């Protein structure tokens, strides 16, 4: 098929640029999904999509590229391999496509790589653009090169717009309606943690009628603030129960010593002590049964956030369980997710034991905690809905289906 003039002109320019692609690791066997993240928050969302695919189809491999110069998110053991994406040259595009041969490509961001995307499309990669915004698209080319936006976007087999304005922009470009979907912004989602139904029912009955708040993944360095906040909050709600879950057994040992020196009445879960009416604090050794405590606690303070140096924990884990979220100011590792939850009204920042105590005391009122929890659930559900659709379409394509139920 003859290329549009704008794309041909761009490729002529790209052929004159020197290749910069470093040596590539071996391609894994089996189906391969390549994903590109323009921003750190997109990287986490894409890693979650890859994890969902691999749970259902373990034979799938995935890797992620990010734009050099942006701040890559900090990967963990669950996430896929990550590497920077080279500048858009014709030689690098050819090398990348020939080496990786991905069956599926997921692209995010308004910055396009016409040479790479067109080459992948030509070699059979099915391409999706996720989370397109109502902003101009751009490509790394001098002003004398014609605008390649329409030609480059036309190589995508499906484009997911984040809102109606973004969808209208895609329509004005002239893309076929059959390739366009309005699906909301791309955001990470987190599945609920496992929990024994029997144990949950037993503990729900045991704690019925008591106000509860959870301090989860707490480090020893911030435990004193949590204990002081709880003591102050119990002045207004004397039956208030704190469930404290340390991040590690080592943190748990230090926190246990602090609790023993406090004037709180403490029961220790891992020693078989159940919280009775006199118990003010239930202490666990580590985060093994965190799924249970998330389900029982309408208010959650998420640790790793009151002191510098840790960067916070994933807040979507809390939102996925339907709880109001409190957190400290040091959450740089997951800043985008915290910002999203704050803007939705699902999370609230605290800075010390005093503001933590105030927040807990205010959220003990069930309607206030429920409103925050509902807002957080909306955020997680929106991300999950787009993930479901992307995963289903990718599986259709891998199975030789065009996504409409007809064989390709």
Walk me through what this model shows.
Residues 27-185 form the 3-deoxy-D-manno-octulosonic-acid transferase N-terminal domain. Involved in lipopolysaccharide (LPS) biosynthesis. Catalyzes the transfer of 3-deoxy-D-manno-octulosonate (Kdo) residue(s) from CMP-Kdo to lipid IV(A), the tetraacyldisaccharide-1,4'-bisphosphate precursor of lipid A. Pathway: Bacterial outer membrane biogenesis; LPS core biosynthesis. One of its GO terms (molecular function) is Kdo transferase activity. Its main location: membrane. The protein is built from 14 helices and 14 strands. It has helices at residues 5-15, 40-56, 90-100, 114-122, 149-153, 164-173, 197-206, 220-233, 249-261, 290-296, 316-319, 335-344, 353-363, 366-398; strands at residues 32-37, 61-66, 82-84, 104-108, 126-132, 158-161, 180-182, 212-218, 241-246, 266-268, 281-283, 299-302, 324-327, 347-349. With 408 residues, it is α/β, with parallel strands linked by helices. The chain folds into 2 domains: 5-186, 3-Layer(aba) Sandwich (Rossmann fold); 197-381, Glycogen Phosphorylase B (Rossmann fold, 3-Layer(aba) Sandwich). Strand 1, helix 2 (40-56) and strand 2 form a beta-alpha-beta unit. The strands form 2 sheets. A 7-stranded parallel beta sheet has the order 3-2-1-4-5-6-7, with helices on both faces. The protein starts with a helix and ends in a 10-residue tail after the last helix. The protein is elongated. Helix 2 crosses helix 14.
């Amino acid at each position: 098929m003859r290329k549009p003039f704008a794309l041909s002109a761009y490729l002529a320019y790209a052929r004159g640029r020197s290749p910069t692609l470093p040596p590539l690791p071996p391609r894994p066997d089996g189906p391969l999904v390549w994903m590109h993240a323009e921003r750190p928050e997109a990287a986490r969302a894409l890693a979650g999509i890859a994890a969902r695919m691999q749970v259902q189809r373990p034979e799938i491999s995935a890797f992620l590229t990010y734009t050099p110069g942006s701040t890559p998110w900090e990967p963990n053991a669950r996430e896929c391999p990550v590497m920077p994406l080279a500048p858009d040259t014709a030689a690098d595009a050819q090398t990348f496509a020939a080496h990786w041969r991905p069956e599926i490509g997921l692209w995010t961001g308004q910055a396009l790589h016409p040479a790479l995307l067109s080459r992948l499309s030509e070699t059979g990669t099915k391409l999706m653009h996720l989370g397109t915004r109502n902003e101009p698209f751009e490509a790394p080319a001098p002003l004398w090169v014609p605008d390649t936006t329409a030609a480059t976007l036309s190589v995508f087999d499906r484009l997911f717009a984040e809102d109606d304005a973004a969808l209208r922009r895609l329509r004005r470009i002239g893309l076929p309606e059959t390739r366009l979907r309005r699906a909301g912004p791309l955001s990470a989602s987190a599945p609920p943690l496992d929990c024994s139904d029997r144990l949950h029912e037993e503990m729900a009955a045991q704690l019925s009628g008591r106000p509860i708040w959870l301090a989860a993944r707490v480090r020893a360095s911030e435990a004193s603030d949590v204990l002081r906040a709880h003591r102050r909050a119990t002045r207004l709600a004397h039956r208030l129960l704190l469930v404290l879950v340390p991040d590690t057994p080592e943190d748990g040992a230090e926190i246990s010593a602090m609790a023993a020196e406090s004037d709180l009445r403490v029961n220790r879960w891992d020693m078989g002590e159940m919280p009775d009416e006199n118990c003010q604090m239930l202490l666990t050794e580590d985060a093994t049964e965190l799924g249970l405590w998330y389900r029982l606690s309408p208010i959650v303070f998420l640790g790793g956030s009151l002191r510098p140096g840790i960067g916070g924990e994933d807040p979507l884990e809390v939102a996925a369980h339907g709880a109001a979220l409190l957190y400290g100011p040091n959450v740089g590792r997951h800043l985008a997710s915290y910002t999203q939850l704050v803007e939705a009204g699902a999370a609230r920042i605290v800075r010390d034991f005093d503001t933590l105590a105030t927040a807990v005391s205010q959220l003990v009122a069930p309607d206030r905690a429920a409103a925050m929890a509902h807002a957080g659930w909306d955020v997680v559900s929106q991300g999950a809905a787009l993930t479901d659709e992307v995963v289903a379409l990718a599986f259709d394509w891998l199975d030789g289906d065009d996504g409409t139920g007809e064989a390709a």
